[in-house]
Amino acid sequence: MFTLPHLRNPYKSSVTPIVQPWINPDRNSLMTFRFRWHLIRQFVVFAIIFVALYSPRNGGIPIPLMLVLLLLYVIWQLGSEYLISSHWMATPKQQQRLGIIQFVVSMTGLTALLWTLYSTMASDAWLLYFIPLLTIGRSLERRWAFAFILIDVGLLSLSAFIPFFHHSMFSSLEGLLDMQMEFPAAVRDFVIRGLAGGYIGFSSYLLVRSLAYQNRISRYTTERMNEVTKKRSWSTATNTIAEIMAEVLSNPRQDVVANVIAFDRKNDSLAVIGSSTKQGQTLANKDYRYSATRGITGWAARNQCPCYMNDTERDPERRFLTNAAFPATRSALAVPVPIDDRQIVILEVESPHTFNFADEDVQLLEIVGGHLLASHERTKILEVHRRLADMGQELAQSIIRVEQIPDMLKHIGSVFLDLLDAQVISFHYRHSAAEIITDRAFVGELHCEPTPSMPFVELDSLTTSLMDHQTPMFFQDASQEEMLVKKRFHHIRLDVEPFVVRESIISCAAIPLVVAQESMGVMWINYRRMETFDQTVQDLIQLLAPYASLAIQAGSQSMLEEQKRREGLRRILHDSLSHRLHDVMRSLERLGQSSLTTKKVKEEWRIVRAQVARARQAVNNLIAGQTWLTFQSLVQDLQTHAQIIQETYEIPVVFSACELPSMALSLTGGNELIYACDEAIGNALRHSQLTELTIDIDFDDHSVDVKIRDNGVGFTRDRVVQGLGLRSIEDRIDSLGGAATITSAPGQGTCVRFRVPVPLSV
């Protein structure tokens, strides 16, 4: 191949595109032109035939003959087109054969017409050869098209000697001598006609074939990409995508290498995530990374602009990054694809040949990038709906478990934070029966600790006004919004800056949380970057907001119902059970002072007295509004039990407990743990002959550790009958997802240890 490398720009293609990128026709005008073009072409052809056949100098051929010739041409053209489009020519091979016959007959008839009737035609009749040149490349493959173009151009050039042919046959010797004097002009016409015909024929063929290639390769690439992306996300098929790129840009004589590379903006680095070669796939598996400051891919990623280099050895800007895995690269092409605000993927192709890429290759990779973007959006939508479905189920379970509003909102907010790619999400909500904001919940990374929660009763409260208007508001530039940066009463009183200022918020959105026309609160979505809040983002926000509204409403209703239930329970306990337990305790005290009781009766009396005392403590807790089943109430119950043991049995009890989390226990789970402790303590009192009891409660690594030790006679586990309740203890702890360990030996006492995860699994 003849090249002038010293004149070539390594960053430009060696050929210009057939169709320039600035050509962007309107579809309606294009379809109108295509619809009318057939008639225009036929009119132009008839005009050329008429002008070529008509000669005003000698009258031209007779009108009847001209009409016959035109009629024959029309019949031939319409008949051949009908045959090609009919069902008789069903196969491409048959259509090609008819196309060959059509061009052979047309050129044979044209040549015969020109060489026999030249004396009665216009001198410009050779223009008739341009008609087949404009259509040869449309319906024939390359070898036939080239053959007929060359034949047509040859006949067109030879038409310059038609005058010599006619004069040699019909002129005298003197006429021939005059014609010899004009022979150089005929040679000049021969060259001009050959060059003009060749240029028109081959340029028409090149344009038609280039458009056909672009259409075919685009369609093929689209089909292959659809096969990959319709079943799975593009991110799980990067090697296949790279192989498709390499396949469509390779040919039998040369293979190219394609890579899919991810740009990490935060670290300003690039990572190979897919490749068409084993070496590249090995780099992807090893999470190979390199700096974005180097390489053609880094330049394309940073500038978000396609870039190709057709000679890597002449690279003055050092854009190409040499790698041992691709040592023979001489041409490279990189096209960035912005997947979303966080991801940029670079499609890179490398060739071992110089000047191997053009603008059409950039367009092809942009088609691949469009499929990546569509696949990402489809996957994102499916992921959003999956997350919403999961969140709906979890929210329903939270409502059934009567969880607190802040816990539900924090879980919902964490999902919102990920789906919206926000930095901070805050919920301001109020009790359904209240007129003021009662609480807040924050999710995300805060620069400053939240200000103390307080009712927003002042008249200029922004959150209250947003709730009243019930209209979403989007602030693209929050720092320029006076309502967001203005200091209000509570800011001045607490000596703090407004939230937008102290958290460096650039863009934010305020979404009222409404259920059945009732304002439950406001959700703030905050970004520390510029966010445009396009329609897609707004639709997603509106889709998410009802989940937070439902959580607040359900939590508020649960709180109201729980308050009513507890108030009724307190009244019942105070009016009935509390007094009756008091009477039972007084009767037990009188029975204890009686001399008629035996030793066995006194032992049972002690047990009943202890249990009644614990029941009175539980009732008092409920009347006071304290939750009975909490870790704190468990500690308090065991401590009360230890005091009763010391008073009743006169056995010293060493009790110790660390600070436990403030967490309510389920009724079933809390009772199982209490019963297991009671069983272990009861066994020690009844069977161990102890002189000291130790109860130790510890909290470590999200689990509760309870140890009950005595210094009694101990026992051998294999010789103990099942009636001691050891199996009952183990079964209760197993139901909580914990583990029970019982250690004992004759003469060394017994240690019962429970390790239960938090929260309890029952």
The total strand number stands at 16
Query: What topology, given as strand order, has the largest sheet?
Result: 3-2-1-6-5-4
- Indicate the mean pLDDT: 76
From the alpha carbons, calculate the radius of gyration and give it in angstroms.
46 Å
The share of residues in extended strands comes to 5-15%
Largest sheet: 6 strands, antiparallel
Low-confidence segments, given as residue ranges, are 1-6, 454-460
Global shape: elongated
Number of helices: 23
The tally of structural domains comes to 4
Describe the structure using short key phrases:
762 residues, Beta-Lactamase, 4 domains, six-stranded antiparallel sheet, five-stranded antiparallel sheet, elongated, disordered N terminus
Give a concise summary.
The chain has 762 residues and is of the alpha+beta class. It contains 23 helices and 16 strands.
Give an overview in words.
The strands form 3 sheets. Strands 3-2-1-6-5-4 form a 6-stranded antiparallel sheet, sandwiched between helices. A 5-stranded antiparallel sheet has the order 8-7-11-10-9, with helices on both faces. The longest helix is centred in the last third of the chain and has 58 residues, at 535-592. The protein has 23 helices and 16 strands. The chain folds into 4 domains: 27-220, no CATH class; 237-382, Beta-Lactamase (2-Layer Sandwich), CATH 3.30.450.40; 403-545, GAF domain (Beta-Lactamase, 2-Layer Sandwich); 627-757, 2-Layer Sandwich (Heat Shock Protein 90). It has helices at residues 27-53, 63-85, 92-117, 130-133, 136-139, 142-158, 162-170, 173-181, 183-229, 238-249, 278-285, 295-303, 359-400, 405-420, 462-469, 482-485, 489-494, 499-502, 535-592, 599-623, 631-649, 667-687, 726-735, and strands at residues 257-264, 269-275, 289-291, 307-309, 331-338, 344-351, 424-429, 439-444, 473-475, 507-515, 518-527, 653-657, 693-699, 703-710, 739-744, 750-757. Helix content is 54%, strand content 14%.
